[in-house]
Description:
By secondary structure, the protein is of the alpha/beta class. It has 2 domains: 206 residues, NAD(P)-binding Rossmann-like Domain (Rossmann fold, 3-Layer(aba) Sandwich), CATH 3.40.50; 108 residues, UDP-galactose 4-epimerase, domain 1, CATH 3.90.25. It contains 11 helices and 12 strands. The strands form 3 sheets. Strands 3-2-1-4-5-6-10 form a 7-stranded parallel sheet, sandwiched between helices. Helix 1 crosses helix 8.
Amino acid sequence: MNNKNILVTGGLGILGSALVKKLNQKKIYNIFILDRSKNIKKIKVLELGNLKKVNIIKGNFNDYKTVFKVIKNKNISTIFHLGAITQVIDAYKSPMETFNSNIIGTINILESIRNLKKKINLIFSSSDKAYGSLVGNSYLENHQLKGNFPYDVSKSASDLIVQSYVKTYNLKAGIIRSGNIYGPGDLNMDRLVPHVIISSILKKRSILRSNGKLIRDYIYVDDVANAYFMLMKKMINSKERLRIYNVGSKENLTVKNFVKLITIMINKKEIYPIIKNNSKIEIYKQKLNYIKIKRDLKWAPKSNFKKSLKNTIEWYKKNIDFFNGKLN
């Protein structure tokens, strides 16, 4: 089987672009990014345009015919399905669009694999939010998936659907449930890290939609990309049909403390955020137990937290012009 042709959905997102660069460094993979906009400015700021063996195809994974055609014509052997509506607040405002993208979009990929009857490795990007409210000290991979709010439910459902296709139709899939990813290349100003960093660079107060007391795992994008790559290598060399892993970190912080750290690193003093406290659609505390992936894949986060944050801040300073006018 040719294991060199790889399809990445969500390839212009923070995780997708980091993973594409990692794959490209190996110089043996042909990488195809399926993107609905093929945004030239995004491609440029993410430094993907000049990468050899990286091809960007304009198309939407919400369209089954497009997905089927790409997988068949490009002889795809591995699919990283990272594309999704990822924002809790966006999902709250547009639940129908969220369910269509996150659930039906995932089914389109699964159905394409099933109907092509090909031995394709699918690696699906789930989320810690798929578990729903935390019971106990941390989530384990065998915990039930019980999302409540639209985004959480979309991840619970699509995660279970992937598992169903594996068990029912003998497909081969890996599922990663990660914490909150930060790092260079996050272009979504509705997400915490880009918003706070840009606000701090401009010496403005950031705006928090929560009360700042929500607790999350924060994990550097390169560590997460490495987990996806290691899972792919393991799946290629293994007959096991389904692998599910948590990808977490030691940095389990409140939003307030994380924001405080960023503002001090940029301005040498804390810039207090504006607390909106109007979000009642988010889980209070989340913490992932990642012993399983350490045991099976020998993966662990390698990045130094403060050094990684510094690298992230420097990237935003370098690309500040891209974000002009995008700060609320």
